[in-house]
Amino acid sequence: MSANTYPESDVLTVEQRGHVAIVWLDRPEKRNAMAPGFWTDFPTVMDVLGTAADVRVIVIAAKGPSFTVGLDLMAFGPAIMTGDIAAIHGETSSSEAAKRINTYHQIKLMQRTFSAVADNPKPVIAAIHGHCIGAGVDLTTACDIRLAASDAVFSVRETRLAMVADVGTLQRLPAIIDPGRLAELVYTGRDWDAAEALEMGFVTAVHDDAEKTLEAALDLADAIAANSPLAVQGSKVVLNATRRRDVEENLDHVALWNAAFLYSDDLVESIQAFVEKRPPEYEGK
């Protein structure tokens, strides 16, 4: 048993098995859609695990039928519709400039959620099953290793929602897969399955189901945890050092871009269509 005390969360559960901590996305009734609380709870949990002396490897898994369907549009939709991200916190902005500043800071906060994975001193393994959509891809690109169940389905869905992905996918995925394939997936927003994810190198292995995928992730985590923590964590630091500067600069660039251009008529139409369960009709403005 672990002596560590983990922060309480309505959307996450932490379980420790020896030197391996499992962070469960635990909102199964909503397919682990990422509501506002997730974006504050998740980096807090990751920071605690990063400093826990008896944790050597972190596995991220999910309860329910999906890993995550990404951003909770029902929770964020009203703020997006009004063009005022401060509405998420029950506030209103005093001017158009204040809306843009609030949007920039909110994007940076959400980027920090997944940078807490990429920058965590401990290796992080994603055990993915079911849907891994939108921000789910952002999350898994920040992990060191990705394993998938055969039913996994991925999508950089933001493009189909009239948005530019802004919390890590466009900065980290180029280091993982071929540039042409990356462009195709981002520009179309199409789904790709576990077999294609393996073929393109996005995941390192595919297993029969969620249970087998978690077992494989834990076996891999145990093998890593058996090595010197200093050597493993030092290796992660060195591997990350060559790409960190580009990632940080590009994260800030997309935050500035979306702070300026996020609130389009197409985005409003996208949210309305989602709520009304109909195909969107975009006009490019």
SSE layout and pairing:
Elements: E1 12-17, E2 20-25, H1 36-51, E3 57-62, H2 73-82, H3 96-118, E4 124-128, E5 131-133, H4 135-141, E6 145-149, E7 153-155, H5 169-172, H6 179-188, E8 191-193, H7 194-199, E9 205-207, H8 210-225, H9 229-261, H10 265-276
Parallel strand pairs: 2-3, 3-4, 4-6, 5-7, 6-9
Antiparallel strand pairs: 1-2, 7-8
Helix pairs in contact: 1-3, 2-10, 3-9
How would you describe this structure to a colleague?
The chain has one domain: 2-enoyl-CoA Hydratase, Chain A, domain 1 (Alpha-Beta Complex), CATH 3.90.226. The chain is of the alpha/beta class and 285 residues long. It has a six-stranded mixed beta sheet with strand order 1-2-3-4-6-9, with helices on both faces. A three-stranded mixed beta sheet has the order 5-7-8. The termini are far apart. Helix 1 (36-51) runs parallel beside helix 3 (96-118), helix 2 (73-82) packs antiparallel against helix 10 (265-276) and helix 3 (96-118) packs antiparallel against helix 9. It is globular. The model has no long low-confidence stretch (mean pLDDT 91). Helices cover 48% and strands 14% of the residues. The chain contains ten helices and nine strands. It has helices at residues 36-51, 73-82, 96-118, 135-141, 169-172, 179-188, 194-199, 210-225, 229-261, 265-276; strands at residues 12-17, 20-25, 57-62, 124-128, 131-133, 145-149, 153-155, 191-193, 205-207.
Quickly list its features.
single chain, about 280 residues, alpha/beta, 2-enoyl-CoA Hydratase, Chain A, domain 1, 6-stranded mixed beta sheet, 3-stranded mixed beta sheet, globular
